[in-house]
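Retro notes, structure queue

What went well: the backlog is down to a handful. What didn't: a couple of records were mislabeled last round, so from now on we paste the full input next to the output in the thread. Example, using NAD(P)/FAD-dependent oxidoreductase from Rhodococcus indonesiensis:
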Amino acid sequence: MSIGAGSESEVFDVVVLGGGPAGENAAAYAIAGSDRTAVLVEHELVGGECSYWACMPSKALLRPGQVLAAARHMPGVAAKVAAHGVGVTDVLARRDAFTDNRDDTAQVEWARGAGIAVVRGHGRLTARCEVTVDGPQPRRLRARHAVVVATGSTATVPDVPGLRAARPWTSRDATNLHQVPRRAAIVGGGVVACEIATWLRELGTEDLTMLVRGHRLLARTEPFAGAAVAETLREHGVRLRFGTTTAEVSRPDVADTGIGRIHGGPVRLRLDDGGSLEVDELIVAAGRRPATTGLGLDTVGWDGDGPLRTDDHMTVAGVDGHWLYAVGDVTGRTALTHMGKYQGRVCGDVIAARAEGRALDAPRFRARADHGQVPQVVFTAPEVAAVGRTAADARADGLDVEVLEVDIAVAGSALARDDFTGRAALVVDRATDTVVGATFAGTDVAELLHAATIAVVAAVPLETLWHAVPAYPTVGEVWLRLLESRRR
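Corresponding output:
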């Protein structure tokens, strides 16, 4: 349908607040194969955080360093490769190509081609099934069947004296950097912090410090994974200061220079251990919070604070009727693009089924993978790939588990590169003899993850996994070594 401004409500079957991957999937699945209509309301760029400020630019920055490292450790190739880092200009140009220089024209064309309208502006709920879009001429959109909140999350900047006034970089600056700081400090030790540290060193940051509140990196993974990443970072000259927080920040010559540019003069940090640090740029990677501010949720009976709680149909809890849904980071369930897209698919299918009066009996109408079956890859050196529960998580959930853990030392890994090192672990529930978690740390281990995900989601017994024969010579042969480690 055509969209025009005016005082009358514009009616769609589905209204989606947020044009990122989760919202796009929800809209597309809700109207697929039907004459239903959908609209995305987006105040920034259609395609969302992942396309322009997170997954796509970060992986574009990381990949050249991975290729160079592989070449440096391959006889017959190493002598042909310069050993002095990547070409920054070319790397940034490739990054910009993947983000279309933050131009969402192609994404908007995709949406319209899929029958999804796009409205620019800040959308907020003003009544049941009603969204008002702010702008020079406010627009009122009404939904026949559903409103989906898919507004994502925003970077958290801790309330430390002087920190916000110093205009530190967040992940958006780091992924869209145009200037490489010579001296930098990163606040955080999670996935985003570790990946940023990896590419900053490859791009030429000479003096890099990570300030980590806890006592290890990647605290939500198996300990050996974070330890492996820490070892590599230290080998590359990164200083890791564990158990350290920032007490005060000052930057006398702060400047609003734009995303990815050094924001003025040097930053001085006073640390809680009495130490101090001066850097050219400070990067805060201290987590994210659901973007629920200004959405008008109170007008529809939602009186919560923080993430939008949902059931497994992705319907928002505490709101009468089955019309308000939420997907992606805003739910607080799992802040990963692929999980947000998964939730969007489930949500869209649920909306379609309810619109057509069909039952919600099939498994695909419930987002159950959020519960102990989530896969994730950390694109550091080494890569870390994990799915399901860690051993500690499983025990906390009351499971009696056995951990199978081996080095990744098979013919396929030896052929992959001369310096290949890695480790793998399976967390096995003794009661069912099934895998409830898996972690791999090593070169290119991301490609091992989907097999582990299928094993976890399908609850495949280990006796059955004996008959899933890994091809030779591949790194996947580590699956056989894991099974052999507990052979009876």
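Agreed that this is the format going forward. Reviewer comment attached to the example: The radius of gyration is 24 Å.
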